[in-house]
């Protein structure tokens, strides 16, 4: 297992104590190295032939830094290195795991694929970003409704997705959904 991140400047830096952007500038690779305790490499160094699968964690950083979904929605662009990584694994018929908001990367890069970001309606206030499902459909992909503790496997494309924090749910349910995604990725590897 190796961890990679793009060597690019973050779109913005949020002061999570105040809940607002700060004037500070940070680099995605440097910030990811802080979280990974330094055990990380530049995404440009990732070679698909050296790995059995790839998994993209989610989080709002994906929508801001790996693509421009946070600003442009379905009209977003995907970072060139993220795009080429996804394309390389897909071309090699190796599984791709995506959770939280990161399934939008597959929806943008692989028209016609199947993904989940949870539900397409804000059921009981648990899915405040349910409109993402319709944006995925507008990109020509199929959104599959799943509960937070589940994942969806697009067998034709070897793409496994789960909604994670796209659902307001207890952490143990989010953990279970991510666990099923990882298990399904490993089964396809």
TrEMBL record:
Gene3D superfamilies: 3.40.50.880
Highest rank taxon of the organism: Eukaryota
Name of this chain's protein: GAL3A protein
Species for this entry: Uria aalge (Common mure)
């Amino acid at each position: 297992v190796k961890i990679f991140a793009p060597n690019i400047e973050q779109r913005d830096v949020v002061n999570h104590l105040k809940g607002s952007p700060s004037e500070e500038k940070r680099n995605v690779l440097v910030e990811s190295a802080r979280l990974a305790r330094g055990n990380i490499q530049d995404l440009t160094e990732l070679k698909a032939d050296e790995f059995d699968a790839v998994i993209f964690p989610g989080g709002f950083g994906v929508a801001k830094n790996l693509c421009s979904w946070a600003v442009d929605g379905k009209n977003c662009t995907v970072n060139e290195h993220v795009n080429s990584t996804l394309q390389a694994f897909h071309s090699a018929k190796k599984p791709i795991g995506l959770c939280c908001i990161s399934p939008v990367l597959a929806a943008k890069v692989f028209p016609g694929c199947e993904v989940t970001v949870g539900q397409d309606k804000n059921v009981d206030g648990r899915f405040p970003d349910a409109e993402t499902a319709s944006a995925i459909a507008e990109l020509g992909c199929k959104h599959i409704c799943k509960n937070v503790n589940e994942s969806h496997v697009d067998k034709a494309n070897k793409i496994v997705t789960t909604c994670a924090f796209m659902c307001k749910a207890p952490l143990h349910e989010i953990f279970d959904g991510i666990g099923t995604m990882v298990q399904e990725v490993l089964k396809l590897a």
